[in-house]
Amino acid sequence: xxxTQQILFSNFMRDMNKNRGEMGRLQSDLSSGKAVRYPSxxxxxxxxxxxxxxxxxxxEQYQDNISTALRQSRASxxxxxxxxxxxxxxxxxxxxxxxxxxxxxxxNTMASEVRGIRDSLINTLNLSSGDRYLFAGTNSSERPFELxxxxxDDPDPEVIPGNVANHSNNKSPSVLVGDGIRLDxxxxxxxxxxxxxxxxxxxxxxxxxxxxxxxxxxVNAMLGDIDTTIQxxxxxxxxxxxxxxxxxxxxxxxxxxxxxxxxxISNMVDTDYAQAFSDLQRNQVAYEAAMAVHATMFGNTxxxxx
Length: 306
Known about the structure:
This protein is mainly alpha-helical. It has two domains: about 50-260, CATH 1.20.1330.10; about 270-305. The chain is built from eight helices and eight strands; from the N terminus they run H-H-H-E-E-E-E-E-E-H-E-E-H-H-H-H. Strands 1-2 form a two-stranded antiparallel ribbon. A two-stranded antiparallel sheet has the order 3-4. Strand 1 (about 130) and strand 2 form a beta hairpin.
């Protein structure tokens, strides 16, 4: 086959266009930091990276849920720890009041102390986070516990256990922390009050009444009830602590998974700068060599043949 100037020039232009296109691609990869920006540049990598990114966004939302839940759960746990401490104070006072030699004045003082503890427990368990009451169950917009002072002139007063009204429900607040995984982030007021020995505030009310009446035997008989109440609150605190630990662990898992998935996406679609710079230099050398050959081969004029 006869090699003409037209063939040489066509081959030169084809190679030059290919080289310039490759340099343009490398320049775009280096400036954007992405080697795969469109499906056509890598269908499998593009689709896989989008799936992983969607999974990362979903897990980040779970992390946000867990972060909010942990703040509320830890606040609830602290309130329950304080409740246990205050109930232990009640037990200590009851042990003193159960002594038969205790004077009536001392009994009244102890009754006032237990009454103060009861009132402080109401304030503790009315803990709120933002506009949500943590021990109100799912009825979180309403204050769960309210001290009700009986009207002595009311001939038919409403019976309220321990004179403490309950506006909570028996549904513990929960949060979605994973695909199909919900965890309780608090304790409902109804569950908190309902101990195996009876209503928590009713037990405290009975203790106060027995002390005011100076009934040491009755106070002694109720020591088992206060022990049961302490165990009940301790069990709820332990259960909540277990969920806090699970949320902490899951949050750490999500964080570790996010780092791994980001690295996987980077490997699929991000620019390998070392390789890209090497390829760019190679293309520049090829481009300059082609231009030099072009100048040599096509620099002849008609005068060269005269």
